[in-house]
Structures are given as C-alpha cells and as structure tokens.
C-alpha cells in the first residue's frame, strides 16, 4: 500500500473516482447518510428498526428512521440504533422557489414527527443536512449541539501542510516502524477491539458480534474499510474502521493495543483521510466528546462543524431513569 507523503512543491492532482456510496453517483435526499440506508439499519439493528413516512403525489417525500428501546419500569425511548451515529429527517420536497421549499420541508418534518409512537424519551443526533430545528422546538423538544471535525477534499499536499508539525512528525515516525494493511478480517478486528477494551479495564459499548455484523455488511458492499498497523514484531498495534456514503467518509471505530501510543492510529487516520480525498469525500471524525480527542483531532487540521441534537423526556421517564441508576449502584459489589 502506498503511504508516501508529498514533499515536492508541485504534487500531481489526486484522481477522484466516483464515491461507492450511491450506484448513480448522486446524493439521495431520502438517504442523506449511510446511516439512513436500509442495509446499514438492518446491520445496526437486526432486532428491528422502524421509520415514519410522508407521501405526496404517490411518492415518498420524507422518512425518519428510528428505534424503540425498552427501559426499566415499563418505559420506552425513541433513539438511534447503536451504529447509526447520525439520523434525523430525510426530506425531498421537490422543485420550487427557496421559500416554498423551506415551508414544504418544515411541514414534512412536522408530519414525520407527529407519526412517531409515544415514548417517555426521545434522543436523536441530526445529520449534517439538518440546519433548522425550529419544527422540533415547536413540538416542545430541546435542542443541543454536538460538534465534529471535518476535512474537505482538496489538494493532498495542502491537507498535509494544514496539519500540525507535531502530528506530521508522529506519522513519519510511525511510518518507519509500522506496516499498514486493509486486509484484516472483521472477526479479527472485533476480537482485537474487545481484547483491548478488556485490558484497559473498560466496559465495551459494542458486543463482538455487533462489530462483526456491521463491518461485514459494509465490506461486502464496498462501503467500508478496516485499516490495521502491525509493528516490527508482527503484532497488531492499532486498527480503525471507516465507512462512507456519497458525500462523507466517517471514522467509526478505532482500537490500539495496550502500551501503544497514538502513532499507529495517526498513521491509519492519515491513510483514511487520503483514501476519502481520492474519492472526493469529506472526512468526518464523527464527533468531539472529550478534550483529549479534540486535541488529537485538531492536529489533523480541518474545521469544526455543529451537529444538532433533538431530545426530550417526560418527568416519569426521568424519575424512573434516576431510580434505575440508583438501584444499579446499590447492586454493585
């Protein structure tokens, strides 16, 4: 695998093959992200996901996938499947003046939410195409904002130059002692992920079979890639899993062996960024949740973008959730 880094001032243009995200090569407003696509939802939530639909003139103009989770004390929550990191309404209002389209979109979103089953809680992170959450506010829901880093496609040399010197040096050193491959089997990746989480003394959010299922589904469709870095002794130092649609490539999962620094992961991320750039896709780091990952991701350049979160819960749900949490603490040895 070619992991060379441009050093000359006149780098050749990077070829831009069409993204594998859509057979037509066009963005589908009813599937704005990979997380909205039926096959991904099936892999993420094999126990069942649902969606609300709005039709006009015998065609679907809006859809909102969701999943109902059972909670303690008979409560329910409307959320996203585990591996659906962004969702929210997908709307295709059709042609028309901008003002008319905006009104149509608002009405479609309103009708989508009105069809959601009653639950004690709702939590959904909106995809990058959602820039207006006023309809959700009208329904009495709360608005939060998460953030993510994005690197837009462009000249590879410019992307490299836009990174921190420290990050570039870390990648250079990692390149000298690690071998990068994209042939790691999903089961081996999942086993490595689980082993590293256990050795770190943490509880894994994902089950091994869940990781295998989504990785396999993406690889079979040419929509995902597992990158791994092995050290001089042949041992697996780090691995990452990325997926993509017609507009963006998402940094979904990562793992590194105990005792390894961020060098191998940085090297893999650089290769993933290059791969996304060759496809003409935005590279999305998929969220900023801690100070640590903000500092780490900032080293790769890019810009911060907001992701709106729509949420709301009843008093009963909040009370039972607090009670369940308290009881769980009491049961701990």
From TrEMBL:
Give the InterPro entries listed for this entry: Acyl_CoA_acyltransferase, BioF2-like_GNAT_dom
Designated name of the protein: BioF2-like acetyltransferase domain-containing protein
Which residue ranges does the record assign to the BioF2-like acetyltransferase domain?
163-285
Entry-linked Gene3D superfamilies: 3.40.630.30
Question: Can you tell which superkingdom this protein's organism belongs to?
Answer: Bacteria
